[in-house]
Amino acid sequence: HVQLQESGPGLVKPLQTLFINCTVSGASISVNVYPWSWIRLSPGKGLEWSGHITSSGVTYFAPSLQSRTSISRDTSKNQFTLRLASVTPEDSGIYYCARNGVWGQGTRVTVSS
Taken in order 8, 52, 1, 56, is the CA torsion positive or negative? Predict the structure, then answer.
C-alpha cells in the first residue's frame, strides 16, 4: 500500500526558503493517475491545499501561494519536494503530502527568528 513520509527543517527564519521532502513508497510518483499534493494546516488559515505535481511533472499551485511556491521531484528517489520562498510566521504549521486520500503524518514547521 502507498505510504508518504514528510521531512522538513522544523525551524526556519523569516524570509528564508523552506524545503520539505515527501518520500513515497508503494507507488511510483511518475506512474500514477492521481497527483501528489502538498497541504498545510495553520492556526490562522486552517487546512489549505498548497499545490500538486502530476505524474508527468506538471505543477499547479494555490493562487495565494503561487508566486512563492514550487514543487519539484526526484524520480530516482521517488520523492517530491515543496519549496516555499520568503516565509513569514504565517507560514508556520503542519505540512502534509498526500495522494488520493492517503496522507503522510505531517511535519511541523515554525517560522521564527
Answer: negative
DSSP assignment letter at 94: E
Phi-psi region of 50 (alpha: psi -120 to 50; beta: other; left: phi over 0): alpha
DSSP bridge partners of 41? 47, 94
Q: Which residue from 105, 75, 98 is spatially nearest to 8, judged by alpha carbons? A: 105
Are 77 and 5 within 8 A, CB to CB? Answer: no
**What pLDDT shows up at residue 43?**
87
Band of pLDDT at residue 45, cut at 50, 70 and 90: confident
Q: Which residues pair with 6 in a beta bridge?
A: 22
Bridge partners of 65?
Answer: none
Task: Supply φ then ψ for residue 31, to 5 degrees.
Answer: -135, 85
